Every structure is written in structure tokens, then in C-alpha cells.
Amino acid sequence: MSQVPPAVSRALRAAPPDRVVEVADRVVRAAVGASRTEVLLADYRSTGLWPVLDADRPDGAPLAQRGAAQRCFSSQEPILDTGVDGVCRLHLPLSVRGERLGVFTVDLPAPPGDSVTEWAVDVAGDLAVALRAADRETDRYRRARRRERLSMAAEMQWELLPGRSVDHAAFRLGGQLEPAYTVGGDHFDWSLDDDRLTVTALNGDGIGLSAAMLTALVVNAMRNARRSGGGLVEQAELASDTVYYQHRGRRHVATLLLEVDCATGRVRAVDAGSPHVWRLRGAAVRRIPLDQQLPLGMFAETRYEVQEFTLEPGDRLFVVSDGVWAADPSGAEPYGDRAMTRAMRATRLQPPTEAVGTVLRELRAFHATGDLHDDAVVVCLDWRGFGDR
Questions:
Q1: C-alpha angle with apex 130: 169 to 92, nearest 5 degrees?
Q2: Inter-axis angle of helices 208-227 and 152-160, to 10 degrees?
Q3: What CA–CA distance (Å, rounded) separates 20 from 18?
Q4: What is the span of the domain harbouring residue 40?
Q5: pTM of whole model > 0.85?
Q6: Rounded distance, CA 282 to CA 331, Å?
């Protein structure tokens, strides 16, 4: 039973988008005699796991800040938890190419053998793909993930994201927006094509809905150039001209564009403003020195130049907006002077998906009130290299 029976895959594909969870529950119960299954989805901050089948519980607390499911989500490994009631609870990661969605929990009458566990892992993988596809056709799973109402600007920003994590043979990648439910203009984007990874980070101009609309304009202009075969310079210049001719220099967007050659680790960069890139190599954190050029949209027909640097296997890059490194609450020294690099060093044993959360948690702690006074973006890239490929 190490492969998903065709009937399971067919059932998930045929399920109505808002009933994928119920179909998975039915087929898993029938196949392995499970007494119960549960789908838990990560919230927008990735700080808790929330049930889909009981999303409107009155107590408002996540079911799974209890240990085993959260460990499964963090480690991305199956976790078997035997409770005092004698039920064997198998927690399985729900993820698609490194994009962490949540955890699938299966209650079994006895400890599963290897074949059952392998089968359940495959089912969870198929279920994750089905959930991600269904998410475009129903609001059910997004409602389960949000713990408060999103602002209109935040709604636009989350819809514009490519995802929050990617796992690849050459790299691992994670990103996070904060404040998650009210973010305005800061944003990140990425795309992998022909072993070239493009990553962009934007420091939005303004606040609220107008900032989100400007960011959407820039992101889509860069995507348009990229999808038409344009390199970093073409992406930056099209986006800059689009913003300028829309706003005549009154609005502009500081943006960092990176392109990583996955075969060599060579990075090409266009630095058009304030987002910074930092490298963690061993225990040393250093800012990558790049010559800043004009923000996108400041002047007509601005031209941009590419700079380069090289990654070594084991390097970790952080890209942060000025809402992170320049944060200086109550007249304190900026977060980026010392506290940020301490937080980055503390992430050495964490995957990028956890590392971005650590940097942002430390940023919130740096603010005496715990509230961020500016939008913040953190993107973390672990460079593995292809080794002996």
C-alpha cells in the first residue's frame, strides 16, 4: 500500500472544491479504518494551525499549538503521537513543492506499519495539491486561515503573492509579509524558469489601499516583462516607466531584483532603492554591498545596471524591506544596527520558512508595544547548490 490507489486520486480530483476535506476523510476512513481525520491549515502569520471542519469554534484558539501537529508542520516530517486514550494519531505535512499549507491528521486504532505510513504520506501529498487547486474556486480554506479580518490592502497583497515557500534541489526559499492582516505596500515575488530563480522585494510607497494598488502595478509590470523573456534590466525599466507615466514622478517604489543562476550560484542584481540583502555565511552576517540606483518610477526612461555576486553552498540570504532594517521605535537605534543581525544568526538551524518568522518575531519584540509601525517583508533563501549533479 505504498502508492495512492487510483480511486483516492480520482476522488480528490472529482471532489467539489469546497468539499475536498470531506472526500479525503471518507476515502481515508474506508481505506485504513481510521476513526477520524482532520485538516489543519496554517494562518496568515504561520503561528497556528486551524481546523477546516470546525473553523467557527467559539473559543477562537488554534487546535494545534499542541505539540505533535506543530512539530510536523515545522519539520515537514510525519509525526506519530499516541495519546492516553490509546488512539494513534498520525500527523502528515500538507505541502506542495515546499509550499507549506498545514497538517493532515489521521486517527488509527493501532500503530501503522511502514506501508500504511507511506500510503498516508502520498495521500497527504495528493490532498495538498487538491486543496491548492480548490483554493482558487472557493473561499472556505482562506476563511479557515484568517484569524481576523484583512484590510482591503492586505487582501490585495496576499492575492498577489506567488506563495510563501519553495523547496528545490538547489535552494530553499521562504517569505513573509507583516503586519499580516493590514500590510499595505511592501511585497515580494519570485519565479523559477530554466534553472533561473528571480526574486524581487518591494518597499511600497505610502500606506493602505493606494500603496497596495501601486505595488500591484509594479509587480504586474515586472511579471509582464519577465514572462515576455525580459531580463532584470527590462523588468526594472518597464516597471519604472509604467509607474512614471501613471504618476509623473509623484509616486515611486523602491525595489530589489535578484536573479540566481541555479547551476552556478551566480547572482545578478538590480538595486532600485531601499530593500537590502544580507548574507549569513557560517556565523557571520554581512550586508551585500550593492550600489543603489533610482527607485522605480521616479523619472522617465530611467536606465538600470546589473551588479553581480556569487553564493557558496551553505550560504543564507535575507532580503529585508526598510520596515525591518530601519525600524527605530521610540527613538531607539535602528533594528538593523545590531538586533537584526543577532536574530539572523539565531536562525542558523532553522529552515527558511521558520527563519523569516524568527526575524519578524524579534522585530515585533524590538517594538515596545509589539505593533509594527511600518510594513515589513523578509525573504530568506538557502543556497544548496547542485553538488555533483
A1: 65
A2: 10
A3: 6
A4: 6-145
A5: yes
A6: 32
